[in-house]
TrEMBL record:
Region span, Interaction with tRNA: 151-153, 313-314
Catalysed reaction equations from the record: S-sulfanyl-L-cysteinyl-[protein] + uridine(34) in tRNA + AH2 + ATP = 2-thiouridine(34) in tRNA + L-cysteinyl-[protein] + A + AMP + diphosphate + H(+)
GO molecular-function term, one example from the UniProt record: tRNA binding
This protein's encoding gene: mnmA
Protein name listed in UniProt: tRNA-specific 2-thiouridylase MnmA
Entry keyword tRNA processing: yes
GO CC field: cytoplasm
EC numbers for this chain: 2.8.1.13
Domain spans labelled tRNA-specific 2-thiouridylase MnmA-like central: 209-277
Keywords: ATP-binding, Cytoplasm, Disulfide bond, Nucleotide-binding, RNA-binding, Transferase, tRNA processing, tRNA-binding
Biological source species: Aquicella siphonis
Length: 372
């Protein structure tokens, strides 16, 4: 999209202090729009400044806004984050699943709480530094992959709806990360080479096991082979994910090869962590999965069975699959439906609680939570 083609608009940019949102703000200001910035400060807890250095990020965001000549507000959505994102995050771990909080964070905070705030401030649009694109045609709004295939973030945005997309701009969606950093360097932005943020959305980088233990009681138990042979002890099923190799602390075992061990399954009822040897052990691969519901970005419901492609994790190559609706579906409504997704090729480390996201070439169709 050429942002110079949009009528002059009031746009509020979510400024993280990073290079992506900084360049997004510049591109919109340079296109002649009235641009303001908002820094979302959404976590209030112990060691906030140690693990999620908001003060440093605010300082970086302010420096960019000063250079660009735009106003920056700091807005706290901590209550909304706790209620809409973090409570769900804990519930999923409590149930033995591995959630992806970034997806819910985008839907509920960045493109709901922030969007509501911007509307109340009289903004026409919000903008973020996501590597994605939005397109409107005769059938409605569509979410497209970012041009930089290594940075495309449509996977994390698949839970948005058309109304959210209609008021959201992704100015760097047509650029590569290299182009973004190079432009920031040319502009003299102090954060042009700043490391990309990692860790839990808005909570930051911290020792995950210690952090999670503050909120959920750990239940240690047995680590076993699929046939029940005990190999060691785990610290709590919530600390492990399917396909994990590190941290199992299983040494050499008599009668076993030296091949590394991987988490293949969590036996929630028996509190067992089931592991197998070898990166390509058959137990690590699944031909199909179940999701209880699928969120479709565009309101035009597809017909089933539907041949498409999907990702079960970020940065995975698109995988050919067929979506079958098992029950509860009508052409007007999919609430309460159950879907079985069958892949052409078995998929490694399919993880309950993570998202499966569907694509038609560059168009992100939507997605759902992997149940089993």
């Amino acid at each position: 999209m050429n942002y110079s083609d949009i009528p002059s608009s009031r746009i509020i940019v979510g400024m993280s202090g990073g290079v992506d949102s900084s360049v997004a703000a510049y591109l919109l200001k340079n296109a002649g729009h009235l641009v303001e910035g908002v820094f979302m400060k959404n976590w209030e807890g112990d060691d906030t400044e140690t693990y999620c250095p908001a003060a440093t990020d605010i300082e970086d965001a302010q420096a960019v806004c000063d250079l660009l000549g735009i106003h920056l507000d700091i807005v706290n959505f901590a209550d909304q984050y706790w209620e809409r994102v973090f409570a769900h995050f804990l519930a999923e771990y409590r149930a033995g699943r591995t959630p992806n909080p970034d997806i819910l964070c985008n839907r509920e905070i960045k493109f709901r709480a922030f969007l509501d705030y911007a509307r109340n401030r009289g903004a026409d649009y919000i903008a973020t530094g996501h590597y994605a694109r939005a397109l409107k045609d005769s059938s409605g709004m569509h979410l497209l992959k970012g041009k930089d295939t290594q940075k495309d973030q449509s996977y994390f945005l698949h839970a948005l709806d058309e109304s959210q997309l209609a008021q959201s701009l992704f100015p760097i969606g047509n650029l590569s990360k290299h182009q973004v950093r190079d432009l920031a360097r040319q502009l003299g932005l102090k954060n042009y080479n700043k490391k990309d943020s990692t860790g839990i959305c808005f909570i930051g980088e911290r020792k995950f096991k210690t952090f999670l233990s503050e909120y959920l009681p750990a239940r240690p138990g047995k680590i076993t082979t699929p046939d029940g042979e005990e190999l060691g002890r785990h610290d709590g099923l919530m600390f492990y994910t399917i396909g994990q190799r590190q941290g199992l602390l299983i040494g050499g075992k008599k009668g076993k090869t030296e091949a590394p061990w991987y988490v293949a399954e969590k036996d929630i009822q028996g509190n067992r962590l089931i592991v197998v040897q070898g990166e390509n052990h058959p137990a690590l691969f699944k031909q199909a999965l179940i999701t209880r519901s699928i969120h479709w970005i565009n309101q035009t419901m597809p017909s089933f069975p539907l041949r498409t492609t999907a990702k079960t994790r970020y940065r995975q190559q698109d995988q050919a699959c067929v979506i079958h609706c098992m029950h509860g579906h009508s052409q007007e409504k999919t609430d309460g439906a159950c879907f079985r997704i069958e892949f052409e090729q078995p998929q490694r480390a399919v993880t309950p609680g993570q998202s499966i996201v569907f694509y038609d070439d560059d168009i992100c169709l939507g997605g759902g939570i992997i149940e089993e």
